[in-house]
Write a structure and sequence with these properties.
InterPro entries: RraA/RraA-like, RraA/RraA-like_sf
Strand content: 15-25%
Protein name: Putative 4-hydroxy-4-methyl-2-oxoglutarate aldolase
Largest sheet: 8 strands, mixed
Cofactor: a divalent metal cation
Organism: Pseudaquabacterium terrae
Pfam families: RraA-like
Order of helices and strands: HEEEHEEHEEEEEEEHHH
Number of helices: 6
Shape: elongated
CATH superfamily: Ribonuclease E inhibitor RraA/RraA-like
Distance between the termini: 36 Å
Low-confidence stretches: none
Length: about 220
């Protein structure tokens, strides 16, 4: 199976974290992960789960491959991560895949490239993230080159089983080996921000509230 079974400890509340909170935690731990240029396109604006990785390549006319049959092997709860090299001239995800993925309980799809048939994703509330949308098919233009290998989302490396978090602000990638640490730090940052808001609404200055919550220390790399 491309995305390993959930054997790591995911802290309670991690599924509710925003990408901003996770991005701040990644920064504090000196980890990359914010996928530039990939945003919410259709369906529910929330995705969380382990990556199921697929990499595309230009079609080999002598030995053409398939485009979407990997979905038969994608486990429930996984996030399909498609690396089409950032191409915007042809799609690697469409309406049939959105409907089938939603039916099978797949968590969502994130594409370094474009998607189409976004209305069908909307109909089944299937989360789609991509560089944009374009109607032209990838059939006879690209083919699946690898499944389960390391791929790219913009300038971020993604291995099978890494955690993908998405919301209205975009996509972040959390290395599986550091996922517990990253999510725990993000939850601490969230709690500090909530204390800051509560203190300022009660009359404290923003400067004092941030000091009391040790907010700058929590955000600092290596702290």
């Amino acid at each position: 199976m491309n995305a390993p079974p959930d054997s790591i400890a995911i802290p309670a509340g991690a599924h509710e974290l925003s990408t901003a909170e996770v991005s701040d935690a990644l920064d504090a731990l000196r980890l990359p992960g914010s996928a530039l240029g990939i945003g919410h396109v259709a369906g529910r604006a929330r995705v969380f789960g382990p990556a199921y990785t697929v990499r595309y390549a230009p079609v080999d006319n002598a030995n053409p491959g398939t485009v979407g049959d990997y979905l038969d092997e994608t486990p429930e709860g996984a996030v399909v991560v498609l690396d089409n090299g950032g191409r915007t001239d042809c799609t690697v995800w469409g309406g049939i895949l959105s409907q089938l993925a939603a039916h099978r309980g797949i968590a969502g799809s994130v594409i370094w490239g474009v998607c189409r048939d976004t209305g069908e994703a909307e109909q089944v509330d299937y989360p789609l993230y991509a560089c944009g949308r374009f109607m032209r098919t990838g059939k006879d233009r690209v083919q699946v080159e690898a499944v389960g290998e390391v791929v790219s989302l913009s300038d971020v490396r993604v291995a099978a089983g890494d955690y993908i978090v998405g919301d209205e602000d975009g996509i972040v990638v959390v290395p599986r080996a550091r996922a517990t640490e990253v999510f725990e730090r993000a939850l601490v940052l969230r709690a500090a921000e909530q204390r800051i808001v509560a203190a300022t609404l009660a009359g404290a200055t923003l400067t004092d509230a941030r000091k009391q919550a040790a907010y700058h220390t929590l955000q600092r790399a290596g702290s």
